[in-house]
Amino acid sequence: MRIRLDPWPIDTDDGQLGLKPFEGELIDVETPRWGAIAAKAIPERLREVYLVDGRRRMESRIFIDDEAGNVGVGGFGAYVAGAVKLCPHGSHLAVLEQVRAQRVLAYAPGLHIDPYRLSPRHPHTGQLEYTPLPCAANDPLAPMHAVQQAMLNAEQQLSHGLASQVPFDEEDEREELTSLTLQDGTLRSKNLGGAVVGCVKTMQTQYLPPDRVGLLGELQPGERTPILHLKYNGGRFVRFTWYVRLSRAPFYQHPMSGVMRLEMYAPDEADFLPPIVRKVANLSGTLLGRLASAPHKDARAPQNLIPTAALEQAMSRAMGSQELVTRRIRSHLAREIGAVA
Amino acid sequence: MTQKPVNQNLKLSSPTPPQAPARIGMVLGTEDVTPTIFWFAVSVGASVQLDDLVVVETQRPDGKTVTFYGLVDNVRKRHEGVTFESDVEDVVAGVLPASVSYAARVLVTRVDPENFIPPQPGDVVRHARGRELDMALSADKMKEGAFPGGLLADGQPLPLNFRFVNGEQGGHINISGISGVATKTSYALFLLHSIFTSGVMDRVGLGSGQGGTSSGRAIIFNVKGEDLLFLDKPNNKVADKETEASAAKGFAADRYTMLGLPRQPFRDTQFLAPPRSGASGDAIVPNTDQRSEGVTPFIFGLREFCARRMLEYVFSDSAGSLNLGYVIGNVEEKLFRLANVQTAPGTHLSVTDWRPDEQTEIPEGIDWGDVGDIQIKTFDHLISYLEYKLLEENDGAGDKKWVLNQAQGTLRAFTRRLRGVQKHLSPLIRGDLSPAQAEKYRPNLLRGAQLSVVDIHNLSGPAQMFVVGVMLREVFEHKEKYGRQDTVFVVLDELNKYAPRDDSSPIKDVLLEIAERGRSLGIILIGAQQTASEVERRIVSNAAIRVVGRLDLAEAERPEYRFLPQSFRGRAGILQPGTMLVSQPDVPNPVLINYPFPAWATRKDEVDDLGGRKAEDVGDDWLR
């Protein structure tokens, strides 16, 4: 018997490793030879790499009754979708982009809602404006889902707006890879055509068949598996995916720690691998090796990348102090209703 | 090479520019904001350094404005948004986004009006210029009493309040710093130059209703080398040094022009030096190595020594024994009476009650007078006479009136000590001068020139103590008689030696008198020392204006320097020559200044004797 540790802290919801079996199609699209592929240098032309992430939170659950006499539930929420822009060659400092909080008033469908403004009582605290956002349903979790969806959409827009376009058929003259976006987490369902890579930190689902899993433990830092074409959920989701090792696994952790799964959008047919995807896969080991975090600085190292951690912090800050906002909402309502605040 | 004084009315700062200076930052909200100290975040593109003077306006809830003036005493930059020290590598590699936070701490020097509310985080911070600068440095309160005490970092003159120098509201200046690099004497001379040439004495004289002009005099004791014997000669390096300094600091003009002071050596000077020791009758020449012309030897007449009760200054440690002090006092009194009955012209003492043949050792060269008296003409003989009166007369019992029942041991201690200093004092105290010579060589500090330099560096310790003590007492007595107009500045370095904290000496008593009472008499002590912690506390604490040059860091932590905020104390260890920290009563925080290179020569090789021309040109004139 051998016992080894999961690298992630025990207070996160899941470990880094789960062993959920994969139900879908898996096709070798790059090469039939299943073996480690060494990382390549980052091409000179790739000047910009963006890391995109989003954050959201609910600030209050609310009960609404509108002028027409309808009632329903809703919530004040906030979200941010932001990016870190960096040069993979280190030619300039990394900067935060568009880290700006959006505030929404999510409400049950059928209500009549105006934008809601919390005006400041103090000259040094800004005005909070909540834009109305209808929910899909009138259940208590719907406002949170609405905010989540708004955040994902914003993230998606940002990711693709920043990245180079990926051509998806052979006729398309290959666009140069000058700008790449790394998005935190799996890719959203819709492909908007940008060179966007989803960085999946955890391995909840075991996509590889048992005879191939062994390679993950054998990868050296920077090395990757060949690219696979992946189709699941009844063909609704089609992705290219590959695994890359960011750092060596310590002896006391399971051999797949330090490995990250990357994915990019794929066409339905598994007969064409866009050159850009191969290029991204080739440089991914080098790039991520550079961005990987160290275990003494980040509990989710190395998969939680250095810029991502900084971005998460900046986004939380952009949303402001939860406590203070709740207090503002309360005192605002008190004044609206006419009670003494 | 000299320039005319630029203006009579000292202009302390440039007029307020038409539009207010740009914002350099905002008061921080993440550090405590208090009415006396606060931090501000420096705006992107702005540059703030230590000692910058800044101004912040804040609105009270009732709409009234309160203005804070202050001095930057700390600036720092750090990465914001990162947690670990090694994150700097990731930031520089372009992997980790972080911003640089640049913040400065302000020590408030003035709040106007005096509403001690804190500024609001977010209030705009600007550089103080023009009128605001005057407010920050309280120059508006000084009015005609302001004279330049040096240049601030940005080239604006620092006003010092003369009323806190001349004794009106305060007096005395004290300068501390390590020898050699702290340039204490240079700064003292610069202050004198500024006081004498800026016209501040006249302006304050007028302002105080004391009539037209008031003049001041200065007495400098030269204790090290012959540095101060060339103060009346132009310095041949000043032009180059000042050009260099102006270029390095980015000033538009040379520092004398910016201060509104003429670049000239001291004008009205006299130089006094002790005579070379030699046999009686030899020519009296000053004991100086580098300069002989224009230096007057000073000698005290033997009769004057007795008549003016100078004996106590021979003993630098009289307080060591009560009995000894008693003997000194008694002998002094006897000599005083003796001097008062002298009738013959000259500086000797004529005595009739001395029988040298009764002594075990007959002193050499005794001058037997015509009528059975003996003329005492040397300090040596005076001591022999005292030995006779105290220990030998009446078969060793001494003259009763002189002995006054003191024990032999005490009397012997007295004469032994006199013998100990005899060698040092003999050249200074002479009884063989004619009345004309006595007049010529009597040190005349108060009626001679505006600036008197007394060179005592060649004298031994006891002789230095004697000269300084006697001269200071003379000044003190003179001022006691004539009052305080015409301020007398006394510049004395090495206060550690003359007024040590733990010992007492007659000279320390005089210095204490000056420190405590001199202010009202118009005697101002510009004292300097390496370590204020080792100088009599009352002398240092009486100084209104305190100046610190480079300090030993351990010294800077002593309580004598508590007037410096912590950041200044740390900085005192790295001050360069020509840079001082100046603290004055009008401004609650010290200010860092630099002052120009001396326009007067401080060494013989600095003397500009070519009149500004090249050596070749002067040589050509000679060959013609």
Secondary-structure map:
The complex is a heterodimer of chains A (341) and B (624).
Chain A: E1 17-21, E2 24-28, E3 48-65, E4 71-86, E5 95-97, E6 102-107, E7 116-118, E8 128-134, H1 142-162, E9 179-184, E10 196-200, E11 203-206, H2 210-218, E12 228-232, E13 237-245, E14 259-265, H3 275-291, H4 306-319, H5 322-337
Parallel strand pairs in A: 1-11, 3-9, 6-8, 9-10
Antiparallel strand pairs in A: 2-12, 3-4, 4-5, 4-6, 7-8, 10-14, 12-13, 13-14
Chain B: E1 23-27, E2 37-42, E3 53-59, E4 65-80, H1 87-92, E5 99-112, E6 124-127, H2 131-136, H3 139-142, E7 146-151, E8 157-161, E9 173-176, H4 184-197, H5 200-207, E10 217-222, H6 238-249, H7 255-259, E11 269-273, E12 295-297, E13 300-301, H8 302-307, H9 322-340, E14 349-351, E15 367-368, E16 374-376, H10 379-396, H11 400-403, H12 408-425, E17 429-430, H13 435-441, E18 451-455, H14 461-482, E19 488-492, H15 495-498, H16 506-521, E20 523-529, H17 537-541, E21 545-548, H18 553-556, H19 566-571, E22 579-584, E23 587-594, H20 615-623
Helix pairs in contact in B: 9-12, 10-12, 14-16
Sum this structure up briefly:
The complex is a heterodimer of chains A (341) and B (624). Chain A has helices spanning 142-162, 210-218, 275-291, 306-319, 322-337; strands at 17-21, 24-28, 48-65, 71-86, 95-97, 102-107, 116-118, 128-134, 179-184, 196-200, 203-206, 228-232, 237-245, 259-265. Chain A has 341 residues and is an alpha/beta fold.
Structural notes for this entry:
By secondary structure, chain A is of the alpha/beta class. Chain A folds into two domains: 17-48 and 163-311, no CATH class; 55-157, no CATH class. Chain A contains five helices and 14 strands. In chain A, a hairpin with an 8-residue loop joins strand 4 (71-86) and strand 5 (95-97). By secondary structure, chain B is of the alpha/beta class. Chain B has three domains: 23-128, no CATH class; 149-273 and 443-606, Rossmann fold; 300-437, no CATH class. Helix content of chain B is 31%, strand content 21%. Chain B contains 20 helices and 23 strands. In chain B, the strands form five sheets. Chain B has a ten-stranded mixed beta sheet. Chain B has a six-stranded antiparallel barrel with strand order 1-2-5-4-3-6. Classes of the chains: A alpha/beta (341), B alpha/beta (624).
